Amino acid sequence: MLKFAAGLLGLAFCAGATFAQAGTLDTVKGRGQLICGANTALAGFGIPDSSGNWTGLDVDFCRAVAAAVLGDPTKVKFIPLNAKDRFTALQSGEVDVLSRNSTWTSSRDNQAMLFGPVNFYDGQGFMVRKKQNVSSAKELDGASICVQQGTTTELNLADYFRTNKMKYDSVAFQDEDTVLKAYESGRCDALTTDSSGLYAERLRLTAPDDHMVLPEIISKEPLSPAVRQGDDQWFNIVRWTHYAMLTGEELGVTSKNVDDMMKSENPDIRRLLGVEGDQGKGFGLGNDWAYNIIKKVGNYGEVFDRNVGEGSPLKVKRGINALWNKGGLQYAPPIR
Amino acid sequence: MSDLTIGSRTYLQREKNPALPPPRLTSGPLAWVRQNLFSSIGSSVLTFLFLALALWIIPSLIDFAFVKAVWSGDAATCRANLDGACWAFIRDKFDYLRYGSYPIDQRWRVDVTEVVGAVLIFWLLWNGAPRRNVAALLFFIVYPILAFVLLRGAPLIGLPVIDTSLWGGVLITLLMSVIGIVFSLPLGVLLALGRRSQMPIVKAACVTFIEFVRGVPFITVLFMANFMLPLFVPDYLTPDRLLRPMIGTALFSAAYMAEVVRAGLQAMPKGQYEGAMALGIGYWPMMRLVVLPQALTTVIPGIVSTFIGLFKDTTLVAIVGIADFLRTVETARLDPSWAGPTISPTGYLFAASFYWVFCFGMSRYSQRTERRLSKGRKH
Amino acid sequence: MANTSTLVKPDRGSILNDPKARSLFYQVVLAAVVIAVFYGAYSNTSRHMADAHIPTGFSFWNAVAGFDINQTLIPYTQLSTYGRAFWVGLVNTLLVAVLGIVLTTIIGFTVGVARLSPNWIVAKVAMVYVEVIRNIPLLLQLLFWYNAVLKPLPAPKQSIQIPGGIFLNNRGIIVPDPQFGAGSGWVGLALLFGIVASFGFYGWASVRQKKTGQQAPVLLVAAALIIGLPLLVFFLLGSPITFEAPVLKGFNFRGGRQIFPELAALLLGLSVYTASFIAEIVRAGIQSVGRGQSEAAHALGLNARQTLRLVVIPQAMRVIIPPLTSQYLNLTKNSSLAVFIGYPDLVAVFAGTVLNQTGAAVQVMAITMAVYLVISLVTSFAMNLFNKRNALVER
Fold first, then answer.
1. What is the arithmetic mean of pLDDT over C344-359?
2. How far apart, in Å, are the Cα atoms of C216 and each of A154, C146, C207, C209, C221?
3. Which runs of E-coded beta strand occur in C81-159?
4. What is the model's pLDDT at position C367?
5. How far is the CA of A71 from the CAs of A35, A234, A269, A293, in angstroms?
6. Cα dihedral: A25, A26, A28, A31 (round 10)
7. Rounded to an integer, what distance in angstroms lies between the CA atom of residue B92 and that of residue B338?
8. At residue A37, what are phi and psi to the nearest 5 degrees?
9. Where is the signal peptide (chain A) (predicted)?
């Protein structure tokens, strides 16, 4: 009986096995599926609805990678990860790419991870009740502040209050839901997280209009996808997936007009869509990689707009996330 | 015969004594009330105190849960009525609490698995049922495979694979408990035998394992299974995210099960071992045919109460991100579209009733078995 | 078969059937398997840790933590080290364990005795308590206390005021903070002296009682020594200890000591839950004392209270203490559920935040488990000693 049980366990082991030794690109192709670490639930970035359909900016990034590699944006399996075990999941090879609003920091780069291009420039802020008559984070002296445990947010919070010589009570919970509920029930005066998250969280409150986000941004939070170190080819694919989406926006190629654009005379567009040159081959992909991304997922502007921008309930302004030629920081190296 | 005149002696009483008042009632409802509720002043005070308490709590609970509850409608109906539970909320979320995010058109697979499991468990626990050993065989060996194939899927026979990250709700709670019992009982028996073994290395290994696991909180075992297991095993064996807490749960309850089984082995009269050995039976046949059937029967109550503990402990798997029943209640409770002051109490009341019905039922079964066994031992 | 042959002649038969050889073989196999598993786990782990640049040593212990903890009984700021954070978590765990054990013992013994009360309604209420509480998961009860009982309390501005300068709101309970002025040391000394003197008096009184049968009013004298003496010193020195009353200022009360709702919820949940098990242990213990004992005590003229206190409970304790110890240990281990409601205990602070910030999963988990193991082993050891001393001496 025991032998049998062991066999069964082994069987189950194999079912969930991953093969990290082979190149990630080959693994993904062999599997026919991309495994992507996503947020457990953050509106606008990665959130499953009740029937398991995922939406969000980070989630769409994974779909774009799947479109580039496998030609099919639906061939992605999303693994919801909380703040605590997201990096171990990536390091242990459980996910191929981590696209879960994670901040790029030097110490994380030192933990055998590589952070790709920043797909959302963010910063930490505070949300408070309007009736408290607070207009600046500098007035939060003595407040109780709800924060998620074990995040950079928690460390930034401590730094900010120390530099401004203010006191506070930190009330730390292990997941975002509990943090929000504790804030709503009045356990805390303020809630702190990345400001994009604040807008999303605010919408989950019973009366969003009773709450406001304070103007101060107390940290730099460049959110970006991450991969394991030691697989340069895979890192390149992840990087250039983002750049292809940016280039698409820059050149005016959208998911709607991409088929017409194939006939374009513009050499930049022709190189992007693989009409000219062998850009895709260099990555180990088909030359239609960028075509697939834009056709099946969209360019950066479209993805931003439908997930977090004006086309979404969050209504986050492009701000520093606009293209470089429109006053923002999103800049793609040339594809040639 | 002066004796005959004895009747005329003056010190003899001539009249009957008047009848004493009847003794205070010793039976009947009134006597019962006096004896059990008002035997002294202190007792009377307590009676009134607790009666008031009961009269305050019970009607308000019934009011909240049934009389004034909102049975159907939407969030607005619930927000309009703050005196009663919002069962409409549970009704709306019921499928989510039951299956998690398991795809809707595949949910029959969960139902089938659970019905088969329930039938087998009933067969196994109903004493006097025919061929319980067949039931044991089916439950401990065939059923896990069946459940694995049905729930996870097998493309070969046309069942699409359902990723474990979509499983949730009652399904996870029942699954974790059943996995716990199916693997921890055999493992616990082995550990208990090992602990009573004459072989020093075997004994030391079993004692170390049992005492280590029993000395640390379940949460740390779950953490360990979740964070460290992937580090311990080679990459190609990295277990699935749901499998990790399952392994943790099985090992954890095996240590507790081992102690229960050990108690049964110790209670076994020496004559049973000696008799078997005198017949020249080897160690394993002796254990399988003589000792274990008796020892395990005597500790059925202990096994059941360990299982109750395990059932309650499955709520902790939420710490490693598994959406068990309680976790889905928590998630549902936070849904902003249902926000309202009665939602949390309703959610907790529903969850509490669910766990209570299961645990209380099992503890009743274990008490009945205990009584039956002690009757059997008396003759 | 080997047995019969040994009877006939001293031939040991095949070595395969020699029980000693078999036992040796099994043990060698087991040892080999255990060593192989451990070696495999070790080599896999070190390779994984090296690949993932997971820190291997304990150098993180002295690094600056950088995060804050709201409840700290020992000095801690965000500039303290991770090692310090460990101690803060451990102290918080021990605090909730000790308070919980005291509270649960009181509730558990009361309910246990109540279950055997001759008063029907008292016994039934106690039974309902036990049957309801122990059949509902602890985590659910903790969430209930935290979310359904404590969070709906009013905001600081609408605090419920309790006489004595105590305020109750959704930030917890705020009590006046004692300020120790000059001379308060003498009050402490008087308290210490009172406690020591009470024990001395108790010893003297019990010796005298054994000799002469005369009882001394131990309770009264002890009360006078422990409460009266420090109070006397306190007033003689002109009230050196003052209380700083909490004042509502800004977001919350300033001054005063704050008891956080997380602690209150954890304490309530743990004690109420564990008490339902202790009640059953106490009931079983009392029922294990033969009826003859209490009948004999009644015959000697002891009343019900004296019978319980002097005859039944001391004998029941022998049965009660071993399972009671394991309940205390359960409570201590269950305090790790703190992480679900945001109380900064060892698991939440150390195995949660520190693990996450440093990434040193293996070391942190090993230390955490070792702490609980040590607590368990030390308690079991102490209880075994106690048990030996109190075991029934058969004559």
1. 89
2. 60, 47, 11, 8, 9
3. none
4. 95
5. 15, 16, 19, 8
6. 180
7. 10
8. -80, 125
9. 1-22
CA atoms within 13 A on the CB side of B357: 5
Q: At what angle do helices C261-288 and C313-334 cross, to 10 degrees?
A: 150
Q: Which subunits have 3 or more CB–CB pairs within 8 Å of chain C?
A: A, B
- Residue corresponding to tokens 């939406």: A55
**Using 50, 70 and 90 to split pLDDT, how confident is the model at C2?**
very low
- Between CA B120 and CA B142 the distance in angstroms is 11
DSSP tag of A218: -
CB-CB neighbours of B283 under 10 Å? 15
Does C372 contact B216 at a Cβ distance shorter than 8 Å? yes
Q: By the 8 A CB rule, do A335 and A272 touch?
A: yes
Residue C195 in this model has a pLDDT that exceeds 50: yes
Residues in chain C with CB shorter than 8 Å from the CB of B226 are: none
CA C205, CA C182: separation in Å to the nearest integer? 36
Helix (H/G/I), strand (E/B), else coil: B154: strand
Instruction: Count how many Cα atoms sit within 13 Å of the Cα of residue A269 in the half-sphere of its side chain.
Output: 18
- Partners of C41 on chain B (C-beta within 8 Å) are 232-233
Per-residue DSSP letter, A229: T
> Taking a C-beta distance cutoff of 8 angstroms, is the pair C127, B316 a contact?
no
Q: How far apart are CA A68 and CA A280, in angstroms?
A: 9
Greatest alpha-carbon pair distance for chain A in Å reads: 70
> Radius of gyration (Cα) for chain A, nearest Å?
21
| Contact flag C53-A155 (C-beta cutoff 8 Å) | no
CA torsion, points B174, B177, B181, B187, in degrees to nearest 10? 140
Characterise C370 by phi-psi region: left (phi > 0), alpha (psi -120 to 50), beta (else).
alpha
Please compute Rg for chain B using Cα positions.
Answer: 30
CB-CB neighbors (< 8 A) of C152 in chain B: 341
Q: Which class for B274: exposed (0-12), middle (13-18), buried (19 or more C-beta within 10 A)? A: exposed
When scoring B95, B175, B237, B287 by the number of chain A Cβ atoms within 10 A, the one with the most, hence best to mutate, is B237
The token pair that represents C250 in the structure block: 């800004």
What are the structure tokens assigned to B173, written together?
């709670």
> A touches which chains (3+ CB pairs under 8 A)?
B, C
DSSP at C155: P
Inform me whether the pLDDT recorded for A116 exceeds 80: yes
Determine whether the interchain pair B199/C27 forms a contact, defined as Cβ–Cβ distance below 8 Å: yes
Chain B positions touching C368 (Cβ under 8 A) are 220
Query: How many residues in chain B?
Result: 379
DSSP for C236-289? HTT--EEEEPPEEETTEEESSEEE-HHHHHHHHHHHHHHHHHHHHHHHHHHHHS
The mean predicted confidence, pLDDT, of chain A is: 86
The tokens for A336 are 């040639």
Q: Burial level of A335, CB count in 10 A (0-12/13-18/19+)?
A: middle
pLDDT tens per residue across span A212-230: 988 888 988 899 999 998 8
User: Choosing among A84, A157, A171, A175, which should be mutated to test the C contact, i.e. which has the most C CBs within 10 A?
Assistant: A171
Q: Which two tokens stand for residue B138?
A: 């089916």
Residue C87's pLDDT band, with cuts at 50, 70 and 90, is: very high
Alpha-carbon distance B220 to B62, whole Å? 39
> Is the predicted pLDDT of residue C277 greater than 60, yes or no?
yes
Mutate one of C51, C53, C59, C68 to test the A interface: name it (highest A CB count within 10 A). Answer: C68
Scanning chain A, the segments in alpha helix (DSSP H) are 2-15, 24-31, 57-70, 86-91, 106-109, 152-163, 176-184, 195-203, 232-251, 258-261, 267-272, 279-283, 289-296, 300-307
Q: Which residue has the tokens 């992480």?
A: C339
